[in-house]
Amino acid sequence: MKYPIRKKIPKxxxxxxxxxxxxxxxxxxxxxxxxxxxxxxxxHMYFGYQKGFHIDHFAPKSKFPELSYTYNNxxxxxxxxxxxxxxxxxxxxxxxxxxxxxxxIEPCSADYDLTFFRDxxxxxxxxxxxxxGKYMYTRMKFFLKRHEIFWLVExxxxxxxxxxxxxxxxxxxxxxYFWEIKDIISKLESMRDKYQTEQRLLKE
Length: 204
Known about the structure:
- By secondary structure, the chain is mainly alpha-helical.
- It has helices at 26-32, 79-85, 110-115, 131-139, 145-168, 178-201; strands spanning 3-4, 54-57, 74-77, 116-118, 124-126.
- Helix 5 crosses helix 6 (178-201).
- The two termini are 38 Å apart.
């Protein structure tokens, strides 16, 4: 079974103000990217929320300083993806982000989610024989286990929420194992809540 590499496709909004400090766009970027890395889809809570996330310049600011403050060139990114990509670029033109062999796929484009997906265990895979996709996969270190682990944590959380919804529809306490199942779900939710509390502490 295939799963999207990201839960939601980023949708850029138009900034209400123009800044000369690109970090001031961070809150809007977080919203546009649903608080997740535009490249691998990991939620920012795993890196200390907004304070721990980076802003990547899709066309590197070291090569194209004129785009340093251009909102549509900014990607909300986890530190792993931002550092892996760094200032790599395939051309001298900021609009040419791949040459068919090497380069990148724009994270807000439909092609991105057609190229990358996750398998049953959260591993990032390439859905077609895209040479650019293979280049990006290697350069961005999509093979790292951390990409699978973070996805699995969120997957378990989603499954637990669905399980609670289904269980709450069961109103027959005489059903075999009803109370045992209820206790197991409650314990799992307690552990989940403890984990999320610890994650929130990283924000402070």
